[in-house]
From TrEMBL:
This is Putative transposase of IS4/5 family. InterPro entries: IS402-like_dom, Transposase_6_like. PANTHER family: BLL5188 PROTEIN, TIS1421-TRANSPOSASE PROTEIN A. Signal peptide: none annotated. It comes from Methylobacterium pseudosasicola. Residues 2-46 form the Insertion element IS402-like domain.
C-alpha cells in the first residue's frame, strides 16, 4: 500500500517508483491498485476512515 499511496500522492509514474522504498516494482503496485479498485477495497477503506474520524470528532461536517 505504501507504493500505491506514494505514487498517488506524488504523481510520479508507476515505473519510477523508487526501489529503495521496498514496495516492489511499480507495475505490481499498479496491478494491486487496479484489483483493489475493482473489488471495492478503496470505497470501503474510505467509508471506514470517515466513520472512524467522525467517531473521534475529527470531521467538520458543517462545510
Amino acid at each position: 500500500m505504501t507504493g500505491i499511496l506514494f505514487v498517488l500522492r506524488s504523481g510520479v509514474p508507476w515505473e519510477m517508483l523508487p526501489a529503495e522504498m521496498g514496495c516492489g516494482c511499480g507495475m505490481s503496485c499498479w496491478r494491486r491498485l487496479r484489483d483493489w479498485q475493482a473489488a471495492g477495497v478503496w470505497a470501503r477503506l474510505h467509508q471506514v476512515l470517515l466513520e472512524r474520524l467522525h467517531g473521534a470528532g475529527e470531521i467538520d461536517w458543517s462545510r
